[in-house]
Design goal:
This protein is mostly beta strands. It has 2 domains: 82 residues; 237 residues, Neuraminidase, CATH 2.120.10. The chain has a 4-stranded antiparallel β-sheet. It has a 4-stranded antiparallel β-sheet with strand order 5-6-7-8, with no helix packed on it. A 4-stranded antiparallel β-sheet has the order 12-13-14-15, with no helix packed on it.
Amino acid sequence: MDEVQLSDGISYNYNCRPIPLVALKALIAKKPELASECGATADDVDKGRATGLMFVSERDSGLETLHVALRFNGEVKVDSVCFGTSLGHNADPSVIYVSTKKVVEMRRTPWTVVYRTNLRTGKTKQLTPDGQYDLSPAVSPSGTRVAVATFRSGEWKGEIEHLKTDIVLMNVDRHPDGGGLDRGKPIIEDGGWPSWGSDNVIFFHRGIDEREPTSGKISRTTWGVFRYDLTTKTTERVTPEEFDAMTPAAISETKVAVATIRQRTYYMSEKREERQYRHIEVFDLTMPDKPSVRITHNVFPKADYYNPFVLDGGSHIGYNRVRTDKMNHEVQRNTIPYKV
């Protein structure tokens, strides 16, 4: 099984999303130089010969900025844009993203806010209410709602790995009658990294803190991926308790790609076993008796893979990983899809 590199291999590239056809055509219309440099046209997009990817890159003086990669005839052209990561699917294409551009209001508080930018007009609206702070926006398949991980009470108490967030829903746009975004109370407590399996199903990850019996201090945190049904308001665990799983990317209502660490190590060492590396696996709830599908173990077993995302309706899984062939000179994370 071969993997294909989708980014240009410059700097750190991660948090990728495929660009829907309508949105890609809108981008090409707004930035024709992006298509002209690689010879792609709107017709190439319509017929699937040209595809697009949005990702975060640190190539601009170490700042985390959004870039677009247009792939055509095996060539990749990358250009910067002023937008974010999660793509809307409505008639007027937009990008929904998180940014730290808002000024920090006081010490030890978050400053990550979700925005929506219209790709046609370039207009930007803030979706996160004032006084609240969000991460990991995910747009529903219908394009009408966005799920976010929001900091509890708008506070950050210094957590590094296990951020204390809940998942809330809000409308992508305001009602025609001028109403608000209908941001309600959290639907999922203690959850993060939402990913829609359908308009009624959300996958998410959760950290479970284990405490020392005498002191009450957190001794370690384990991670699992869960599924929440908005219709029945029920939550079920998707991944086993025996190993860590995080950053879900929903393929369908019952199938999800996740990053796993099957044997956690808490100490830095010169050599790790294969089970101690972070790999991508696919879990299918309709086949509970069958093992998960291991995606990356046969690519480079001793490499770490991060943040899976879904391509081509689930026939391909993307991820970012360290380029091991460049580790002697420069460590880079590149976006590489893998066929399931």
